Amino acid sequence: MASAVALDAKSIVLDAPLPLDSGQELPGVRLAYESYGELNADKSNAILVFHALTGDQYVASSHPITGKPGWWDRMVGPGKPIDTARYHVICANVVGGCMGSTGPASAGPDGAPYAMRFPVITIRDMVRAQVALLDALGIGRLHAVVGGSMGGMQALSFAANFPGRADRVLAIATTARHSAQNIAFHEVGRQAVMADPEWQGGDYYGKGKGPEKGLSVARMAAHITYLSEEGLTEKFGRRLQDREAKSFGFDADFQVESYLRYQGIAFTDRFDANAYLYITRAMDYLDLAEEHGGRLADAFARSDARFCLVSFDTDWLYPTAESRHVVHALNAVAAPVSFVELSAPYGHDSFLLNVPALDRVVKGFIE
């Protein structure tokens, strides 16, 4: 197990190379993180929150680039479902990320940015690095691990690969492996990035803006999968932009077009294109059953944690069947597990939005 040396309240550098599933080792790994609430004397009240693909460590504090509230500010904080008046909450930027943790934009051993020399990473590698963070903080066993989407993948991987390190595992709107359709959507996004001439084979650091147009398109395509048809229809329908006449051209005539373009452009201000390539690939590689001999139940055979799985009825990216598959595997090894499918109109993004029923599930399970 890689150990770590604390630098300050917001980052650590591992003092040993991080072993990767690829067989390579990544030296000098830095992990950037945020923490909220006080750690109690016996360090038994810690909760590790894993972020999703486009998230970061700013789960409940203002984002330093956008100035917007934390991505789960409605869920984490004093008196909220994950109550920082009671619990010490930690959230780290994943390895491969671009908000302070070591990723493709970081300097390699030769001082130049890794770019596409960065080694292939997996979800398990991300979790392995965060376990090293916990070791550095002297936290042996967590009160809970929590995550939605890619964060839920990390929560399940944590339970499977580091049994005995958490009392509770809460995985929301997630899966134990990607379907062919999931992989296909990600590949469209990756190809959009790599087709942008400004990508320059990934070697764009210090040479201008980088592949902003390609990354914007990738974000637009992915964002569609996070929503539901019902939600899009209710919010936009076929409404035109507020102007006197249609342009009948390639301007954003429809409100939904303008919305997607805004999402794409805003994303490029805070995310690195190469990090997007690496992280989406890590998600595609995840297969918890394959990691444990081909049987998903065996992934959880050594865990002594309590589990809770949550899905949403309008989530077509990770539909309820994916959560049920995990629940059946947990049942097969007699693991204590609860499961609920919640009704919400927002699609996959429901776990980030105002769904009071989710608040009640999270609060009840955490407490």
Automatic annotation (TrEMBL):
Known EC number: 2.3.1.31
Catalytic activity: L-homoserine + acetyl-CoA = O-acetyl-L-homoserine + CoA
Gene3D superfamilies assigned to the protein according to its UniProt record, in alphabetical order: 1.10.1740.110, alpha/beta hydrolase
UniProt cross-references to InterPro entries, sorted A to Z: AB_hydrolase_1, AB_hydrolase_fold, HAT_MetX-like
Entry GO MF terms: homoserine O-acetyltransferase activity
Keywords linked to the UniProt accession: Acyltransferase, Amino-acid biosynthesis, Cytoplasm, Methionine biosynthesis, Transferase
GO biological process, one term: methionine biosynthetic process
Pathway(s) annotated for this protein in UniProt: Amino-acid biosynthesis; L-methionine biosynthesis via de novo pathway; O-acetyl-L-homoserine from L-homoserine: step 1/1
Cellular localisation: Cytoplasm
Major subcellular site: cytoplasm
Class of enzymatic activity (EC top level): transferase
Pfam families tied to this protein: Abhydrolase_1 (PF00561)
Sequence positions that bind substrate: 219, 349
Protein family membership: Belongs to the AB hydrolase superfamily. MetX family.
Subunit record text: Homodimer.
Biological role: Transfers an acetyl group from acetyl-CoA to L-homoserine, forming acetyl-L-homoserine.
UniProt-recorded name of the protein: Homoserine O-acetyltransferase
Species, as recorded: Croceibacterium salegens
Gene: metXA
